[in-house]
Amino acid sequence: xxxxxxxxxxxxxxxxxxxxxFAQNGYKVYATMRNLNKADELKKxxxxxxxxxxxxxxxxxxxxxxxxxxxxVVEKDGKIDVLINNAGAGFAKTTEQSTVEExxxxxxxxxxxxxxxxxxxxxxxxxxxxxQIINVTSVGGLVGQPFNELYCGAKFAVEGYMEALATYVSDxxxxxxxxxxxxxxITEFMNSAVEKTITDGQLAKGEYLPIFNKYLSKxxxxxxxxxxxxxxxxxxxxxxxxxxxxxxxxxxxVRTSDWAENLCNLxxxxxxxxxxxxxxxxxxxx
Length: 286
Prior knowledge:
alpha/beta, Rossmann fold, 54% helix
């Protein structure tokens, strides 16, 4: 039986590549995005390859929009086998120089949106006693990084939320949970985050400027000196997501590159895939 996958944030990057890749591998894909006017490239791929992809509007910050999309899938196919929480937004700016509106926005898009989508999908997976929730988080959900503290805070929240959820829904309802943790990705996501920092912030002046310049030069030096690419393509990350979806016993956590693995090593070496801590918590509390 064909598996249905609902993916958020598919207009570009990892979401776009995941939608195409899953369809190429026999899934029925419901590709969602906040603004369907940005779906032209995906529509082109669907037509060129005759892909089994249906486009739906979904704004992860709007619970009614999420409910409408999920209900549409269930009414048509009766189930959702896989939810991929991919939608997110980069943000690099100091806490001091961020507005209250920006703080709310980065948290809403990167954390609350994951919770909202999961909350809406969970009842259907619970009733069907099966399902998989895959979250595109970040190495920033494990390791805090300069000028990314608000983004990292939101991703840390996703990691903690999903770790806690996995301790009881997996065994009781056969709902598998995984966090896919990329490092740098060559997409508009990364470029817009850095550009926003430089042009929209106050980093062009003030006491943060020397630190920020050091931060940028270190990134450039690391990129120039590396013998292997530090940044992955959206397709490379999508391939990891597909591997997780096809795994009968998927990890709670998986980094998507050697660079990401090395950055997170101090946090992950005792429990690389996150399963030990989940099992320990279950022993303590359940």
